[in-house]
């Protein structure tokens, strides 16, 4: 039988937001890999997984999660992590990889899977979807992500504030991920496009340090890196106005 690599989305931080299928996949795997930065601190994925599987089943693997400038260093770190997980796949029939949010939405799992397909011939790659930060923030803030025919645009602000501003000029809801370090530029973009009043942002969703606030309160101070923003379009057509 070929080995199996299963990417499991474990949600944005609240352990109660892991799906039943996700919990079953974590428990069925021989080992569960969780990504950690080279600084070694416990990440959200590991903290969430620890609610459902014993510690001896969790394997911490260092990834270059915070390396964005030195491509050679990042690639070397990916190769090292890939070889580590390849070794686990050779020793075990099923390895799960826990990722915050969803494994197919801006996830570390994507790059790992690409690496392992080359390193481990015949490996079967599967994913279990997870609840995303934008869904959780919408629920906690009362923001409606989409209505009727509205489009939804998801933008990582690591791509630059100009990309966000272009999206905000469009007709639908805009969600921004990872905008904490560019909070001042994001606030300015919201003001310039008339989207500030109804926008909300949140960080550490489901965790003790959770913060969910109106975007109008952004004062330019840096926020946690994994902050999420929802900027709905103007909805003035009444119930069903966007149908």
Radius of gyration: 19 Å
Quick one: overall form? elongated
Mean pLDDT: 90
Strand order of the largest sheet: 3-2-4-1-5
Uncertain runs are none
How is the main sheet built?
Answer: 5 strands, parallel
How far is the first residue's CA from the last residue's CA? Answer: 50 Å
Helix content: 25-40%
Q: Work out the number of β strands.
A: 10
State the secondary-structure class: alpha/beta
Percent strand equals 15-25%
Number of helices: 7
The helix/strand series, from N terminus to C terminus, equals: EHEHEHEHEHEHEHEEE
In short:
The protein is an alpha/beta fold. The chain contains 7 helices and 10 strands.
Describe this structure in words.
- The chain is an alpha/beta fold and 243 residues long.
- The chain has 7 helices and 10 strands.
- The strands form 2 sheets. The protein has a 5-stranded parallel sheet, sandwiched between helices. A 5-stranded mixed sheet has the order 6-7-10-8-9, sandwiched between helices.
- The protein is elongated.
- The protein starts with a strand and ends in a 12-residue tail after the last strand.
- The mean pLDDT is 90.
